[in-house]
Amino acid sequence: MIVAAYSSASAQAIPAKPPTVLETNRKMIDSLDKKIIETIALREKLVKEIGAYKAKNKIPALQTSRFQEVLNNAVKAGMQQGLSEEFVTELMNAIHRESLRIESEAANHPN
Question: Among the four residues 15, 40, 49, 60, which has the most C-beta atoms within 10 Å?
Answer without folding.
Answer: 40
